[in-house]
Specification:
Length: 300
Amino acid sequence: MASQKIFGLGTIVVDHQLFVDQFPVVDTKIEANESRLQVGGPVPTALVFLSRLGHDCTFTGLWGDDHFGVIIEEDLDREQVNFFPASQQPGTETGTAHVWVEQSTGSRTIVCRRTSADIEPLQELATHLSQAGVLHLDGWPAEIAVTVAQSAKAKGLTVFLDTGSPKGRTTDLLQFVDVVNAPRRFLTQYFQNDDIERGAKRLLEAGPKTVTITDGNQGAWLFTQEETHYQPAFSVVNTDSTGAGDIFSGALIHAVLQAWAPEQILEFASAAAALKCQQQGNREALPTLVQIEQLIASSR
């Protein structure tokens, strides 16, 4: 298995998940069936998954020295994901997210508040890039993401971007990205049009060599300038879709590093994301390599 040192930069928060039968209507109050805390964020969740697959991962983000900051550091230590000491800023409030999971469908709704700490210490990441082969981003903080991506490209790293939603300098960032993963809703937010082929073509024109588009139970697509591949969604019981896109991106990185064929890359990432949806959580639900391979084999 090909393994490389992977650096990541992005949002990290502590999620407060509440599991409900159905989402509440406005101005009402309902009881949650279950409540739990977990560490969330597109890049750190992907890096934990990659660490479990044997990759050497380092994360840079921002959090405070409060109780939630302790939770984050303990989680990264436990999952063997390195982090820069400058990520923790004394006197700063750690970012949090409220996540409602509708148990009847597994869908989730998120309200997130990132930390407002000084982003300057994150520039230190650029000085360490020569040690890595891969840079993984979610586009935040916007200014630092562009600077670090540009430096990474100059040093010959492969740059991955999990878009989620448009950020402040997404257009500038895309020119330094090799592989971009975007949910279909990103196309609507960024291009005001959710046509998948048209959106993928425009993303390829912006700089990336490979574009993947995910659309939940409608499946996923992989585009390059030369070819297009479609992967139907795997048939699983959706219990909690929180983090599915994060795991898709992590699996995408792993598969690209193995130099697999495009259709195999897409199949692997889709299977990993599907398995995550079967269980609650960003850690307990992470699939193993064996589980992913078994799901793929059973679906052929």
